[in-house]
Design a protein that fits this description.
Layout lengths: L2 H12 L4 H33 L2 H14 L13 H14 L36 H9 L2 H6 L1 H5 L11 H7 L36 H10 L3 H9 L6 H29 L3 H4 L1 H4 L5 H30 L12 H16 L1 H26 L5 H5 L6 H19 L16 H29 L7 H7 L1 H7 L3 H32 L6 H22 L2 H32 L21 H16 L21 H7 L2 H35 L3 H7 L1
Helix pairs in contact: 1-2, 2-3, 9-16, 9-19, 10-18, 10-19, 11-18, 11-19, 11-24, 14-15, 14-22, 14-23, 14-24, 15-22, 15-23, 16-22, 18-24, 19-20, 20-21, 21-22, 22-23, 24-25, 24-27, 25-27
Length: 678
């Protein structure tokens, strides 16, 4: 088959659901046939060259001209000296050196040159053979000739898309990212696509994970975590433990998800199809979507509350001017999410640095007013409440952002070391937020320099409380930092939200998608602000956050175990087709996830309208109050999710990896043509 016929056949095969296997077999067959033709032609040429007669050499020359699309001639065209030099250099690369004394010149026929000779390169594409090799080939039969065809025709191909993690961890280095210097077109906005990022654009270093998440870890979020756990009857040291443990668990979940993005260059919700199946992933992805929308609404609602306290003294009524801030922030966040790429990354860096400076400023103005001795000597409270506080931290931090782990790691170089990716992510997601959160908790529990009511003010709205009790410069700086942090967090949330929509086949153009998301989020936040009082709204948000945390925690467990068990990259084509290696529905994983969700919901409780059905298992267990108070169902759901792939998924994962390895091996020789088919 010609190249045009082969491409036409590949296109026809790809349009069928079972076409991928047929296309691969067609490629293999054509490769073997072409190798056979090359070997037969090489043997024929060697026979005629050995003969050395003018007729034999003329036949070789005409065969070469036919390959080039030229008319045959009835006389030998002498080679030009320049061409002789090229042929000699090529022969020197492949053939054994032969002494000049042993080389006999081939007889040439004297002919008159053509008036306008066409440039012709003598047949030199095939390497010259020494006498031993020539004798071996002439003595070989057809089957042995075919067996050696692959070795003779083998060429160096581009690196395979398959990446073995153990090899990367032992051989790769960060310097390899400089090898690919392919220029990329400059685009105003990053296109939203579920396809893997091109290798040429995946040149980020592991340290980029520190900057990508510093906008979150160094934001006002850790102070919000301190406010959330201040509602529990625990000591300062117990609160510090809850913040540190919850932040570390959250950071690990996000960092491991980032590792999967490094391996594949794909989004988190899309990679979730590997453990659940292409269509089975719809159920957990829907909860990821709800969780992302929920936290985007919560961020805008928080901005509305801060704005209300700044422009009005009546906290039960919202002045119209207070809506300006959340609307403006939503517009800025939608713009950043639409641009994505380097623009969003730079803003994340700037926001993180400003957040760290703001944190240092808070410490500088408040450290002397905290009664540290009193905090350290506080009597320990209930450890049940401590674990409950840890669950809240994980729900607010880990559950909210683990579904975005791979989204901000898709530009990492595939040769980056895994432990460096995880290490830098942990620094910005565990150490930084834990330090800020613990200090914020110390402000609530031990601040004496700002008066006896500061703790209540801080718990009600920590940004306005810090701004009110500091000087004007500090107040302006803190408010600016809070605004920037809110914009960046909302932009990151909306950016991931659009990717989740695409994974559910709800595809919109980036600009339209961000407009729809912004309208939905602002509408939800404004509705909560108008119809629900601030204190009640905060309790409602916490209870609904815990309810959403159960299905997402079960998903985190399954996804994390799946990523840690796998040792090679994902097969991207199979993630888009139900008949691929990952199947349409992985029934065991999907049922296991549903079981973990059912158990988790049965072990938490809530008095909020619409959530009173939660906790249906606690009445059947001893110490029902313990389960209701600790929200231990979140940890149980996470644990069940972690164990499920270990118990049932290892054979499936190993089988999938073996299939991926096999298909990669089969298409290696014709990789360029196979990529064109993909």
């Amino acid at each position: 088959m010609t190249d045009a016929q082969l491409h036409e056949a590949l296109g026809a095969a790809q349009s069928d659901e079972a076409g991928i296997m047929a296309a691969m077999e067609l490629l293999e067959t054509q490769a073997q046939l072409r190798d056979i033709e090359k070997m037969e032609f090489a043997a024929w040429v060697m026979d005629l060259e050995t003969n050395g007669s003018p007729e034999a050499l003329l036949a070789v020359q005409n065969a070469t001209r036919a390959q080039q699309g030229l008319e045959p001639v009835d006389y030998l065209i002498p080679a030009t000296p320049a061409v002789d030099d090229v042929v000699a250099s090529l022969n020197a690369l492949y053939a054994k050196p032969v002494a000049e004394a042993e080389v006999e010149s081939e007889p040439q026929l004297e002919v008159e040159p053509e008036p306008e000779p066409e440039p012709l390169v003598e047949y030199s594409e095939l390497p010259a053979f020494d006498e031993n090799l020539r004798a071996q080939l002439q003595s070989q039969d057809f089957e042995s000739l075919l067996a050696g065809a692959a070795e003779v025709a083998q060429v160096e191909t581009a690196p395979t898309a398959l990446e073995v993690e153990s090899f990367l961890d032992s051989e790769a280095s960060d310097e390899s990212v400089d090898l690919d210097q392919v220029a990329q077109p400059i685009e105003l906005a990053e296109p939203v696509s579920l396809h893997s990022q091109p290798r040429a654009s995946r040149r980020s270093l592991p340290i980029s994970q520190f900057w990508a998440w510093l906008g979150l870890g160094g934001s006002i979020l850790p102070l919000g975590l301190a406010v959330a756990i201040s509602q529990f009857d625990i000591s300062f040291l117990q609160g510090a433990f809850a913040i540190a443990a919850g932040s570390t668990a959250s950071a690990l979940a996000i960092a491991i998800a980032a590792l999967s993005g490094k391996r594949s260059g794909l989004a988190t919700a899309f990679l979730s199809r590997a453990p659940f199946g292409v269509f089975g992933n719809i159920a957990p992805a829907a909860f990821l979507l709800l969780t992302r929308v929920f936290w985007s609404v919560a961020i805008v609602w928080f901005v509305l509350q801060v704005s209300t306290r700044v422009v009005s003294t009546d906290q039960k009524a919202i002045e119209p001017i207070a809506f300006i801030a959340p609307i403006a922030i939503s517009i800025l966040a939608a713009t950043l999410a639409f641009l994505g790429g380097k623009v969003l990354f730079k803003i994340q860096q700037i926001s993180g640095l400003i957040g760290l400076i703001a944190g240092a400023t808070i410490v500088g103005f408040t450290a002397s007013g905290i009664a540290w001795n009193d905090l350290l000597l506080e009597v320990s409270g209930s450890w049940v409440s401590t674990f409950a506080a840890m669950g809240v931290v994980f729900s607010v931090f880990g559950v909210a952002w683990s579904g975005s782990g791979a989204d901000f790691a898709r530009k990492l170089s595939s040769s980056s070391l895994g432990f460096k990716v995880v290490g830098w992510a942990l620094l910005s997601l565990a150490i930084v937020p834990a330090a800020i959160g613990i200090y914020g908790f110390a402000l609530i529990r031990g601040m004496r320099g700002f008066g006896p009511t500061f703790d209540e003010q801080f718990a009600a709205n920590f940004v306005s409380a810090l701004a009110t009790n500091s000087n004007v410069f500090v107040a302006i700086f803190l408010l600016a930092s809070a605004v920037i942090s809110s914009v960046v967090m909302l932009a990151m949330s909306n950016y991931s939200l659009n990717l989740v929509l695409h994974s559910l086949s709800i595809k919109m153009k980036p600009l339209l998608g961000q407009i729809v998301i912004a309208v939905l989020v602002v509408g939800g936040a404004v509705s909560i602000g108008i119809f629900i009082e601030a204190e009640s709204a905060l309790k409602i948000l916490i209870d609904y956050a815990l309810a959403l945390a159960i299905p997402v925690s079960a998903w985190i467990g399954i996804y994390t175990s799946d990523v840690l068990i796998r040792r090679i990259a994902y097969h991207e084509i199979s993630l888009t087709r139900g008949y691929g290696f990952y199947k349409a529905v992985n029934l065991s994983t999907l049922l296991g996830w549903a079981l973990a969700v059912a158990v988790g919901w049965g072990l938490i409780s809530s008095s909020q309208p619409g959530l009173t059905w939660l906790g249906y298992l606690t009445a059947q267990l001893p110490s029902a109050g313990f389960w209701s108070a600790t929200n231990f169902g979140i940890i149980i759901a996470l644990a069940l999710g972690l164990l499920l792939p270990v118990a049932l998924g290892i054979p499936r994962i190993k089988r999938q990896e073996a299939e991926v390895l096999a298909i990669e091996a089969r298409r290696d020789e014709l990789k360029n043509m196979f990529e064109a088919m993909d």
